[in-house]
């Protein structure tokens, strides 16, 4: 018999729509994105009703005593059969670890999860992570691929996915219930020149015209940067111009392995210059498998069906004259185990640098990684490489962020016209407060509210308001011990940090 949580709790009043961040609205770091939407009631400090989660991610791993530690949102109370909140489903915006990695951890620990919905690319990459973690198929949650334009029912809630451009193709979600709607932008940018699928501006505009959005939840990661992101078409042109200045050199473009747009940039430059694209790094291989499986292979994205793509481990990639090859490498943040760092130490059997190479960083360099990257560049130059380009070349940018700047956030709000509130998610306190301040400086917009992990937002009134707080702890586990193979360590107990 189907449980009717909402009806059991309070029949005197219609259910309300609540939002509670369980992760992602952090003090200092970016990660662990996880947002709970509940249709029901808030009584005596407790939410009751039925719910969906938008994302279930983890923080980047960090070194701890004896190994590597990872933390992620504690959703165990939602998985208990007698929970006052019935979790109907999890909807994933995209396949970056800070949005889906906690699912792997819960499956490792044996927790049964509700059905998971995502795009074909997102779910393929999640399955790849589950396989890599050695989790048997019978322990996987059910997974359903959605199509853009459909509305997915989930109990008394409905969820509509909307295509949103990002460094990895993603989805926003319009979650509706109780006559109200919350739109989650997820990580996004509005740029329409991307090679990977871009943001559906027409649907966003339609939302605003129909007044479908009461609360807009936006990505605040770049809320401290003015303007909008640089168009990807400009970045491709800059990379092409730089490559053509070194016709007899081997070109090495460094990006994040999970940056599908970065891979497409490199493929486009290879196609324009008649080079073979050779890819290096496991994270790039995973992304390419996901793109291929979902009909977004690089030759299709760049409109060059004859583009030749090979693994950097093949004999062909290693025997080609430098003028015929363009390498795309993972390791843009200086990760010690990544292929770029290994090659800088002359420890990679398939990639060696010499005076015949140029190295181009087509990625944002995080401030806390600059020391590692500078040391790596010094090691690369010591191998004879004279030309290394970091972020810019001759004043021209070589990378565009996957996160929209404040000008783009304002454009998004102007399109969807939220009726009662704007919330900055996916950022530190500083970034989310900057997002709030910038929106509140514009009187024509709905009021912006800074919402922290655990705080509960009631969307019912003409202006959404915070009605309470519940704990939103993080679980902390060791995922890799020092001097051990790089796979998750079985964990008997989940420690609450």
Q: Largest sheet, described in full?
A: 8 strands, mixed
The proportion of strand residues reads: 25-35%
Could you tell me the CATH topology label of the largest domain.
Metallo-beta-lactamase, Chain A
Based on Cα principal axes, name the global outline. globular
Residue-averaged pLDDT, rounded?
Answer: 92
CATH architecture descriptor text of the largest domain: 4-Layer Sandwich
Q: Roughly how much helix do the residues carry, as a percent range?
A: 25-40%
Number of domains: 2
CATH class of the largest domain: Alpha Beta
Per DSSP E runs of 2 or more residues, the count of β-strands stands at 27
CATH superfamily of the largest domain: Ribonuclease Z/Hydroxyacylglutathione hydrolase-like
**How far apart are the first and last residues' alpha carbons, in Å?**
37 Å
Structural class designation: alpha/beta
Number of helices: 14
- pLDDT < 50 stretches: 4-10, 484-493
Determine Rg (CA atoms, Å): 23 Å
Strand order, sheet with most strands: 8-7-6-3-2-1-24-25
């Amino acid at each position: 018999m189907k449980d009717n949580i909402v009806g059991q709790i309070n029949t005197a009043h219609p259910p309300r729509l609540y939002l509670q961040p369980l992760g992602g609205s952090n003090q200092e770091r970016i990660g662990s994105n996880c947002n709970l939407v509940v249709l029901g009631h808030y009584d005596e400090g407790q939410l009751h009703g039925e719910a969906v989660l938008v994302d279930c991610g983890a923080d980047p791993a960090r070194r701890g005593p004896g190994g590597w530690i990872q933390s992620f949102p504690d959703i165990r109370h939602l998985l208990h059969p007698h929970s006052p909140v019935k979790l109907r489903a999890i909807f994933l915006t995209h396949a970056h670890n800070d949005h889906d990695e906690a699912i792997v951890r819960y499956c490792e620990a044996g927790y049964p999860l509700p059905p998971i919905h995502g795009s074909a690319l997102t779910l393929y990459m999640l399955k790849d992570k589950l396989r890599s973690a050695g989790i048997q198929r019978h322990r996987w949650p059910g997974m359903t691929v959605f199509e853009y334009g459909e509305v997915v029912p989930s109990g008394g809630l409905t969820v509509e996915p909307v295509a949103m451009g990002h460094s990895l193709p993603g989805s926003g979600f319009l979650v509706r219930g109780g006559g109200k709607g919350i739109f989650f932008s997820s990580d996004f940018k509005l740029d329409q020149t991307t090679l990977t699928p871009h943001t559906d501006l027409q649907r966003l505009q339609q939302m605003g015209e129909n007044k479908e959005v009461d609360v807009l939840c936006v990505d605040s990661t770049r809320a401290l940067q003015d303007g909008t992101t640089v168009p990807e078409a400009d970045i491709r042109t800059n990379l092409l111009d730089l490559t053509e200045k070194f016709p007899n050199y081997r070109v090495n473009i460094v990006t994040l392995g999970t940056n599908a747009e970065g891979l497409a940039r490199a493929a486009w430059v290879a196609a324009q210059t008649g080079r073979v694209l050779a890819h290096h790094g496991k994270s790039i291989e995973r992304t390419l498998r996901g793109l291929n499986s979902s009909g977004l292979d690089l030759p299709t994205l760049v409109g060059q069906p004859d583009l030749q793509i090979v693994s950097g481990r093949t004999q062909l990639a290693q025997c080609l004259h430098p003028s015929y090859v363009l390498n795309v490498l993972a390791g843009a943040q200086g990760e010690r185990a990544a292929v770029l760092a290994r090659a800088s130490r002359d420890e990679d059997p398939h990639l060696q640098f010499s005076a015949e190479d140029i190295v181009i960083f087509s990625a944002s360099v995080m401030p806390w990684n600059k020391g590692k990257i500078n040391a790596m560049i010094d090691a690369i130059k010591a191998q004879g490489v004279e030309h290394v380009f970091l972020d810019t070349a001759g004043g021209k940018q070589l990378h565009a962020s996957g996160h929209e700047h404040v000008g783009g956030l304002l454009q998004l709000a102007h399109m969807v016209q939220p009726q009662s509130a704007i919330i900055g998610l996916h950022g530190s306190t500083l970034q989310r407060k900057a997002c709030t301040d910038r929106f509140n400086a514009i009187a024509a917009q709905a009021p912006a509210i800074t919402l922290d992990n655990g705080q509960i937002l009631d969307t019912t009134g003409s202006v959404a308001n915070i009605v309470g707080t519940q704990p939103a702890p993080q679980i902390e586990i060791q995922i890799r011990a020092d001097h051990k193979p790089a796979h998750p360590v079985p964990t008997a107990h989940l420690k609450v940090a």
